[in-house]
Design a protein that fits this description.
It contains four helices and eight strands; from the N terminus they run αββββαββββαα. The chain has helices spanning 2-23, 88-103, 173-192, 195-207, and strands at 29-31, 50-53, 66-70, 77-84, 108-111, 120-132, 139-150, 156-167. Strands 1, 2, 3, 4, 5, 6, 7 and 8 form an eight-stranded mixed sheet that branches.
Length: 208
């Protein structure tokens, strides 16, 4: 009888401990960047070129899932309970594709699937997407690079790299993600704005 009572007491104690641990469990929060929706593309006029977008690459630490912060230029830290809901590289690739589709520069914009059925191939790299916690106030940094090649020749017709710094209003992760969204928007705009000129010049040279 005493053994049975001891087992019951042990089982109840275990349940209490487990329920206490469950009450202290912390679940991660998930975030995504929020960029303005591109406007509807203008009516097609002289746009004849087609482009395929290869998925952007990034350093391995940016693809772990956690939001990144840097307490010094040499250190890389991760928020264990604050994570990206979507791979940043996939997000950047889709955003670039949507912006080029809305620009009216190209007659067709698609994801690159290995087939040579587009005139141009755009490849890029997300270099930085991180919170900066040194040199004064909290900031965020976004850096992107990209280049466009002719698929048939491999010749580079355009390339550019941009880096943008944004301020953070509050010292919390939602404010950091909001600042990253605004900074990413500026970086993409700066990256893609001169693209129409380059493509137009390339097409003109081809005709001549």
């Amino acid at each position: 009888m005493k053994r049975i009572l001891a087992r019951i007491v042990l089982a109840l104690s275990t349940l209490v401990i487990l329920s206490g641990c469950a009450g202290k469990m912390r679940y991660p929060s998930y975030y995504t960047l929020n960029l303005p929706v591109p406007p509807d593309p203008p009516p097609p006029q002289n746009a004849k070129a087609t482009v395929a977008i290869r998925e952007f690459s990034a350093p391995a630490y940016l693809r772990r899932g956690e939001i990144v912060f840097k307490a010094s230029p040499e250190s890389v830290g991760f928020y264990a309970y604050h994570r990206w809901a979507i791979d940043p590289c996939e997000f950047v690739t889709d955003s670039v594709m949507n912006r080029l589709g809305a620009s009216g520069i190209f007659s067709h914009v698609k994801r690159y699937d290995g087939r040579p059925d587009a005139e141009y191939l755009l490849s890029g790299r997300l270099e930085k997407l991180e919170e900066i916690d040194y040199e004064g106030a909290v900031k965020v940094e976004v850096a992107i690079s990209a280049q466009m090649t002719k698929l048939d020749t491999g010749a580079v017709v355009w390339s550019k790299a941009v880096s943008e710094i944004g301020g953070v209003d509050k010292r919390d992760v939602p404010a950091v993600v909001s600042a990253m969204s605004n900074t990413m928007d500026r970086a993409m705009q700066e990256l893609l704005t001169p693209l129409s000129v380059e493509v137009t010049c390339s097409a003109a040279l081809k005709r001549n």
